[in-house]
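Example record

One chain of 181 residues, shown exactly as stored in the release files.
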Amino acid sequence: MVSRYRLMVERDMTAAIFGLVGVIVGGVINGAVTAVLQRRTEGSDRRSAARLVRSELVRFRSLALVAARHSPEHLPQLHQTTPVIWESYRAVLARALTNEDWVLVARAYAHLDALAAVLVFEHDGALVEWRSREAQRLLADMIEPVEQAAIALAQPAGFPSDHFDDAPALPEFPEQGAVAG
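Predicted structure tokens for this chain:
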């Protein structure tokens, strides 16, 4: 009778041990899969943030290049200089970029903030003369920092090179270019 009782206890213990091992193995597998999926999601978020912010910088670079030939009040795109994409994704980029790349991107947006502070249009869409001159100067000074920031974002954005012009070409728009003149 004692051996039969002992056999039942051993069988129950064996079942409990296998059940416990199954729970532990399942937990480890679940944790590993969750970690891999989270890492992929974070990588995808970093890449999309870098691509979107880079595209915003390319837009501002295009505006700065066109402003060399046209007065800022003749560029309606300058009426909207709020860096919406940057404001949405800078926390993601703060975690994703190296310190050096972060400084380059933040510096480019500091130039853009300075420009936005000067671009206060009158009711008729014109700029006071000093604002127009200062905006043209700021736009010219902004080109290099914006290009450096776009280059810094190339690798996180998934572009194979760190040269500004190696990114996929921008499509031509019906208005004869990326920015209507």
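Notes: The chain is about 70% helix and 0% strand.
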